[in-house]
Design brief:
295 residues; 2 domains; 15% strand; CBS-domain; single chain; alpha/beta; 3-stranded mixed beta sheet; 11 helices
Amino acid sequence: MRICHISGIGININNWFLALLGLYFVAGVLGKGMIAFAVVFFHELAHVLAARKLGVRVSEAELMPFGGVAKMSNELTLDPAKEIIVAAAGPLTNLALFFGAIGLGHHGIWHEEYGPFFIQCNIMLFLFNLLPGLPLDGGRVWRAYLIQRGVNLPVATHKMAGWGQFWGAVMVFLGVLGVIYHVCGLDIVATGLFLFYAATREKKDAPYLYAQHLLAKQKELFHKGILPVDILVSLQDTPAWKVIRNFTPQRFHFVYLVDRQGNIVSTLDENVVVQAVIEHGATISMGRVKEGFPK
């Protein structure tokens, strides 16, 4: 649901977050729910401002229980250094708000009920987003690190989204135990379910990042006029995913297909292999890629 525009950027609130605020309303603590909303809002606003400062285009942002997801131009995920800065901006803002609230409390500017809750929300959001799993900020930092180490973007995304699913499942499990033993409310369970859902969505979108990856590589080729090349050798019955996981940023790739006797039967460039994966899935064999993706 669209709630406002800030400097031309649409700010939306996810339906799951609305449901969580509904839980606060039913429990009679809507004031705390609005504080949680404000904390998440400032968290996501920090991401947007950091991206704008780095010259990254931002079209809209969606507020979620654990932070948010901003729709930015493809250049962010393809530039690890920028992604680390933008990802870190949210948690660091929560940390600053945490210390700011403590400082105000020391000067008598304090609310006995909402003050501690504001501090709790900020430190929890800060720590939660340090977890290494997409779509959390910690997952984005780790993805950027993996890309810098030579892992290609889709593989790094798939790996970190898997960790996001893991943390979501852990939250649901612990949340259910907390409800049973009256340690916490359903908000922990709801947040865990949403994290698992959001991570699953990131994992499903991972294959389509190949198109972004190739486009960025082509732009770099046009800009520099030259790129280093890697040669890979593959059997015809090898699944394409085993080949593309060896594709790395800033290098172009050719794949030699060989038969069981080691004879070269075809040469494919990475564009053809990636296009086959996008259209027919990562399990397509390299032999079918060579034949032009027959049905």
